[in-house]
Q: What sequence folds into this?
């Protein structure tokens, strides 16, 4: 029921198509971070049309890089997905690797990047 007080006029709200479905992203970037991780490769796949490889790894050890946050030190023993643009064709399942990992992006769009994979 719509009640109008005397002297007031009805003002329709915005049509549903003009109402944002979610608030705009705040784009808060990830804190500067990097971890040197020793991990076992569980799976490897080339992501189509992206230039990225995705590795599923089981973290065995995580070392802190001086001056940067180590966001993976609490995730030892966990399996995580990481992305890399390095050539992963010579990597194999069950291989133990060392890599520099860092969280890239913001609170809404992010991934863990792997570099210097050995």
A:
């Amino acid at each position: 029921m719509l009640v109008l007080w005397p002297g007031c006029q009805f003002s329709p709200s915005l049509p549903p198509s003009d109402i944002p479905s979610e608030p705009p992203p705040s784009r808060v970037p990830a804190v500067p971070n990097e971890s040197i991780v020793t991990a076992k490769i569980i799976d490897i796949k080339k992501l189509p049309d992206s230039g990225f490889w995705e590795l599923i790894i089981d973290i065995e050890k995580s070392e802190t890089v001086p001056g940067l946050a180590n966001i993976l030190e609490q995730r030892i023993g966990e399996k995580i997905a990481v992305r890399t643009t390095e050539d992963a064709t010579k990597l194999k399942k069950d291989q133990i690797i060392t890599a520099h990992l860092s969280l890239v992006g913001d609170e809404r769009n992010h991934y863990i990047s792997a570099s210097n994979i050995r």
In short: Residues 38-115 form a domain with the OB fold (Dihydrolipoamide Acetyltransferase, E2P) fold (CATH 2.40.50). The beta strands are 35-46, 53-64, 79-84, 96-105, 110-115. The two ends are 69 Å apart (CA to CA). The chain is about 0% helix and 40% strand.
